[in-house]
Amino acid sequence: MSRLRSTRTAWGEGALALLAPWAIAAAVTMLLAWQHVVLLRMWDPDDYMRLLEVRDWLAGQSWFDVTQYRLDPPRGFAMHWSRIVDLPIAALTLLFRPLLGDVLGERAALCVVPLLILLGIMAALMIATRRVGGPAASFAAPLLVACCPPILFQTMPMRIDHHGWQTMMAMATAAALLDPRALRGGLLAGLAAAIWLSVSMEGVPMVAAIFGLVILRFLIGRDDAGHAARLQGFATAFAGGAALWFLVAHRLSAWGHTECDAMGPAWLMLIGGGALGAIVAARHLATAPRAVRAVPIVMGTAMGLTAFLHVAPLCAAGPFGALDPVTRAFWYDHVVEGLPIWRQSADMQGMILAFPLIGIAGLALGWCAAETPAARRQWASLLLIAGAAFALSLLVQRTSAVAHGFALPGAAWLLARALDRVRKSHRLLVRVVGSSAAILAASPLTATSIGGALIDAIDPAPVAQQGQPTPLACAQGCDRWSALEALPATYILSTLDVAPSLLVHTHHRFPASGYHRNAVPLRRTITAFTGDIDATRRMMTAQGMTHVLIDPEADEAQIYIKAAPHGLMARLMAGHPPAWLQPVALPGSPFRMWRKIA
């Protein structure tokens, strides 16, 4: 009876340690995002596009078809996104509609889904931290997540793109890999990795690193049975889960071709080859010499890689390898989330660097302090994963949330150790001040602020313009959409970054937005604003475009002006449109619009 009571108490304490920081974070982020919620103002173009994808699906568009037909009509814009991310948004929208109505029901779903993902991230990190650092450290983990800027941004209300999902699946993979029950942990980790890549192939480098770690533990570990079970479980669930979801989410015709930016036959061949070799080694050669165990793994991976390169050779250059120079220079090279650390602002550099380094130091110290070989292996595994994620975040900014998550158990362990020492003091002042100082020192917010300030002090030079869309300048109470919505539906030439918000708030059609599969309309739109103005007029006539619309406050406009000081964008921004464009009044709107008259 006492054991049952003790278990219930532990569960209750764990639930409180998880739910209290989550509730506080949910309330604070809801407060910060309230204007976005009320005005249906998403955080970036991808969130708008995700909302459109869900709306179109609920309106009858096929489960298998994620094309956005109001971009580059009538062909439409090919998208590469996963229905996994759409499912909870659609489900909660349908659930809330009868209770709140169509508008509020959708708005509630857009708030609840990211917050549930935040809860999932906290839970996964709490489990992972407990498995390496013990109960006290695990209770600190959700608290640190609640003040971790890159994770919070990806899980803000109205932030419905796939980055939150990627972070959650990454943390779930790590937590499962640390499971003391090897087979169960391997199966769950492999399934989480399969979902991770099915959501986005951006996770390929980290999933490859994690798969490599599982193989490494099998090859050099002494507990052959446990490492073999973990490897077999991971490989089976990873390959099987990826193939199963592809079967569910795609028409049979999709098995005949591969896109580099999404799960497809070529990727499944690569995964399948590596997984097959790993399963053979784990199942039949667990007690063989290390060199022998490595043979089927190397052979399977080589076969999978050969098949991958044969079926999809262009994918060796990555999903953006086929971009033409114009599109790369004007669009891709200005996408902040894809840029390396040296192209970021001082604040962003501080965020990328500071907290992960503290967490990695904590993981290293935890490894040194571990008392058993099994514990040292757990710490070492997480340390290697966190190190790989940190290195990747230096090259690609969008991976910083994952890097923070993997490093967080180390910071939580440091915080727990510091609090334990402070509590032993007999002085109340020492306990209060010491506890507060320890929490502040371990907080990602503190690390980010200090790191950014130090970098700015060392190198105050401004960073190159990033080209990220800015909020539209608008006086209080202005209505930015109604004047546009009042116009008859038509085909409007607009810039790339503003198109998704226009699609959500108006019934018009637009030529392009920043999605790389659609190289021709992307380049056509860029050259319309930067190339020969007469050629732009002819292109608009040929495509059936009737109007031009720009956002004067967007960074994209400045990029075009800098590159083409005599181009269409420069003329429009200077108030000197060509004779074939006639101004259209948009009362209360920050946009500028012209009608094509010749």
TrEMBL record:
Segments passing through the bilayer: 12-34, 108-128, 134-153, 203-220, 232-252, 264-282, 294-322, 348-367, 379-396, 402-419
Recite the UniProt keywords alphabetically. Answer: Membrane, Transmembrane, Transmembrane helix
Where does the source fall among the domains of life? Answer: Bacteria
Instruction: Identify this protein by name.
Output: AcrB/AcrD/AcrF family protein
